[in-house]
Amino acid sequence: MVKNNSEFFAKTNSVHGDVFSVTPPNESDVDYLGQSTKGDLNLKLEHLQVFGIDGNAALEGPIEEVAREAEGLLKHLGIPNPSSSRKSPRGIFCSRTLNLRSISAIGYDMDYTLIHYNVMAWEGLVYDYCMEKLRKRGFPVDGLVFDPDLVIRGLVIDTERGNLVKADQFSNVKRAMHGTKMLSTRAVSEMYGRELVDLRNESRWEFLNTLFSVALAVAYMQMVDRLDDGAILPDLGPLDYKGLYKAVGEAILQAHLDGHVKSEIMSKPEQFVEPDPQLPLALLDQKEAGKKLLLITNSDYHYTNKMMQHSFNRFLPNDMDWRDIFDIVIVSARKPGFFQMSNPLYEVVTGEGLMRPCFKAQTGGLYSGGCAQMVEKSLNVHGDEILYVGDHIYTDVSQSKVHLRWRTALICRELEDEYNALIHSQSHRESLVELINQKEAAGDLFNQLRLALQRRSKNRPAQTLAATNMNDEDLTESMQKLLIVMQRLDEKIAPMLEADGKLFNLRWGFLSRAGLWDKSHLMKQIEKYADIYTSRVSNFLNYTPFMYFCSQEQNLAHDSY
């Protein structure tokens, strides 16, 4: 290994082209994990004499020792090891192996991806406008206030029953709320024990994909209470839970369409946007590494320009403008249709938003509408050469994955709170698991004694000689004691299970879990469609644009170790 690190890097920079080569697309292969080697940096051994190093001698000794020296160099440079970054709330978590070096273009959504809003402020504003719309239609909304803690991302609205439910990875309902009142475990079992959540039935189930769904869900659940209380007057027509959902949904839509919400946000963005100074720097690293950067948002030009100026320009070096980062900007993209069909493309040609039709996007251009195939054609990149980053599991992630085979990243800011909640819940969960293990051991013994008693009643020997030789009194007394033990364990386990996850949300528990061990339906969707997921885009700063993300081992029920 080279002893003088600063001298090494100085020489490296001066002869970069002579010492290293980048694997071009036409010479790329796939590695042992099936990932493209395009973009890999290769060492030209014939030029090592520039450093006075013998190519074979440079790596003499056990390879483990060389790896340890690399870890030491990371520490010396003050750079966090990517493996340690994964074990933090700001980690990037990998569902499917992804070689960033092979990615030619990275596309970004804007709202709740590049720009994170204060949920209480943004969704609270939408809620207020929604309530005002409902009031004008005659709905009783007096006394209602916005309570974002009523819901979390990943819940599902059952519009037939006026319920909000949390499903596990197999679509079984694990928790439910009617109106604003949580239902008991027994009530959930009686109501949903024989049916599954089926998101294909869009007329009944509404999946809360994004934080933009919070105002809708809160308003609807509160209005369910008013409907149950008989407070909604008959002159509004005969309303069932589905009709009520339609009315609330229309009020939310009108709140967005009339323009007042976005106008208010644009007039004072500092009240709604939570700035992230590191985010523009993460994108600069990617751009300087040769990635083509795209902004593909459903927001219109005026709103996009105002929000991006506010969130980016003050953190960029050398008086750069946010437009300088992106090779192509597409507003009013109309996702998810953007990924599925061909729509007309318009070029935005003036600062006032004047547009003209065009047929091909050019680098540096600003466009409205269009489709993903146009982007691929303009950049001459396709499929898994593109990574798309967004916050909406359906509109952003699943559709780009299913229809185009783009690589995908999901942004979910709540992961930071969940991670910290899990850390602080560790001792609680360990105690709960210990009690469950005790219950399982007592239950196993009880079942064996019960079987021995059953066989004895049929004049057949028990499973073992010792069990066969137990007298009736000892057998019955042991079973009685075990029943008492299991009942007392249940009395401890039940409230602890109920409390699990309350550090994240009092009603719904953890975002990614539906019970102690089961994954939530949202987590299943993330694993299915998102190759990587993280809490914010600036987390890429800890990993470099050349990171090779490796998926972690997936434990199976029969993994004995």
UniProtKB/TrEMBL annotation:
It holds the Pfam family 5_nucleotid. Keywords: Hydrolase, Magnesium, Metal-binding. SUPFAM superfamilies: HAD-like. Mg(2+) binds at D109, D391. Its cofactor is Mg(2+). Gene3D superfamilies: HAD superfamily/HAD-like (3.40.50.1000). InterPro entries: HAD-like_sf, HAD-SF_hydro_IG_5-nucl, HAD_sf, Pur_nucleotidase. The active site is at D109, D111. GO terms for molecular function: 5'-nucleotidase activity; metal ion binding. GMP binds at D111. Binds 1 Mg(2+) ion per subunit. Belongs to the 5'(3')-deoxyribonucleotidase family. PANTHER family: 5'-NUCLEOTIDASE DOMAIN-CONTAINING, HAD-SUPERFAMILY HYDROLASE, SUBFAMILY IG, 5'-NUCLEOTIDASE. NCBIfam families: HAD-IG-Ncltidse. This is 5'-nucleotidase. It comes from Lupinus luteus (European yellow lupine). The lineage of its organism: Eukaryota, Viridiplantae, Streptophyta, Embryophyta, Tracheophyta.
